[in-house]
Amino acid sequence: MELWYSEKQTKDLGITCKVRETLHVERTRFQHLAVLDTYEFGRMLVLDGAIQTTIRDEFIYHEMIVHVPLFTHGNPRRVAIIGGGDGGTVREVLKHPSVEEVVLVEIDGKVIEASKRFLPEISCGLEDERVTVIIGDGIKHIKENKGQYDVVLVDSTDPVGPATGLFSQEFYKNVYEALGEDGLFVAQTESPFFNGEFVAQIFTSVSNVFPICRLYLTDIPTYPSGFWSFTMGSKKYDPLQVNTEEIPEISCKYYTPDLHKSAFTLPRFVKELVQKNE
Fold first, then answer.
1. Residues with catalytic annotation?
2. 79 - beta bridge partners?
3. Is residue 209's pLDDT more than 60?
4. Alpha-carbon gap, residue 154 to 152, rounded angstroms
5. Where does 3-54 sit in CATH, by number?
6. What is the H or E stretch that residue 265 is in?
């Protein structure tokens, strides 16, 4: 008998993967959690029926949410990650030698436990001595730690359930205050193809708080439409002004210095979303 997993990515569209084995299923305090071993994408973390990461394509998301902002800043020492319990974002942050401390704030400790057990390639950085893991509310943590971070990375799930507050202008104001005088942040901000108005709203909210706001894009096969956005808010540094010739080579499968600026080159329909909200 064949076993298939289907994620309903919109009310009219889904993605289906053939499953080799169901490795883990549980109902945590916050959400339904599953780890599946699929033929096409390998081991896959699924939360509340939505694919979060897979062994085959995770490097794209994690490299792009990390290296674009960290190389834009240039000398990040303290980095906060809100969400991201799978550990992939931590792994990429640790590739930057200037980083002295990484604080991961994950509301659901079961995500971390499952990732350590079933996704060791992704979670491998969580035991590093520079990493502090806090099981708790990322919104509360950011509000209570003013001026503490050079970079904040919001590696959240979709804007439902506990993650809803991570997409509010009030949260972005608190992020601004949690950053140092030259700090910046990046958040994953959904699909411009399926969630265009939402992407535009987030861009407006971030623009209302930060003097520099930029949207950039990448392609993630298992995410809705395969076309994904990140939004950066920065107090001082503009990613378009980075001298890419000075970006050092690091071990990556997707990110390159040449890609750094090109990720900000927007297709016309996405550019129009941003322009009408500037």
1. 155
2. 102, 151
3. yes
4. 7
5. 2.30.140.10
6. none
